[in-house]
Amino acid sequence: xxxxxxxxxxxxxxxxxxxxxxxxxxxxxxxxxxxxxxxxxxxxxxxxxxxxxxxxxxxxxxxxxxxxxxxxxxxxxxxxxxxxxxxxxxxxxxxxxxxxxxxxxxxxxxxxxxxxxxxxxxxxxxxxxxxxxxxxxxxxxxxxxxxxxxxxxxxxxxxxxxxxxxxxxxxxxxxxxxxxxxxxxxxxxxxxxxxxxxxxxxxxxxxxxxxxxxxxxxxxxxxxxxxxxxxxxxxxxxxxxxxxxxxxxxxxxxxxxxxxxxxxxxxxxxxxxxxxxxxxxxxxxxxxxxxxxxxxxxxxxxxxxxxxxxxxxxxxxxxxxxxxxxxxxxxxxxxxxxxxxxxxxxxxxxxxxxxxxxxxxxxxxxxxxxxxxxxxxxxxxxxxxxxxxxx
Length: 391
Description:
This protein is of the alpha+beta class and 391 residues long.
């Protein structure tokens, strides 16, 4: 995944300053401004200028800098993701203070400078608080995420449970039999290799295959299962994986954990009845009946391929499959968090996951003729430094 990898040399060279910005998706998904790297770099330059007048030995700081800069280059080249840079994130604080105390300043001013940096860092953290910015629910004691246990089967079998939401809710797995098998299909199928692996996993299932999906408030039928319109939508999501809902009714497993996420710590009986997970029997294999009802023309596929050829870094050719969606067709590229749509009205658009709105590239004919091309250097929501990004 290239989510945090800089697109240009300028972005790479200014990453330490970009990390100070109070913006999300700079080096981690949440807003986590870090002034220490920019301060460290400026202090290192100051130490270089005054190297003949430094106070004490500079060897420890030089050794740490000699480790930090090559590690940064490797980090930016491979992922740019802060979670894989934790050793350096821990080292840069002591390094920054160490550089302060090497400068030829009075003891009082060095103390003032170090304290000022600490206060500034605490201020930006407080104003862009990371607490509760990521987690949906606090959990520390078993069962961590409460869900009613499914009724035991009279003839226990190794059931394969399929989830399709981007949040897998894997903490509910201990409530199910130990023999259960699990697979999350939210990204499987976007990459051809992953799709083949997913099909292999489903093909060797010896027991029943069932869908596990969080219920939708206000969209339950009389039996507590998904309403007809929701069943149709689920079939659309399942069709690329050769799955579909079986005719049998779905079971609702109430979940206080899911109710808490929705802000209902003490739900009413009516509301609580809807807060849970639908368990729906699935049919497999279903040989793309839905896709055959909504065929895609060769012109649509050619439009996708033309866009891929324009921006292969963000839209790797032959790395994904085409999915029919309401109003058009979609190709999803998890590698770059990008989606490209060819709509039934003839428009070709793309959307980066951080952008508020999609970007129109042009019509199918304009794209195929080369008159309208995707601007790979100006990806809305991604390109540029944090303070220059257009969302």
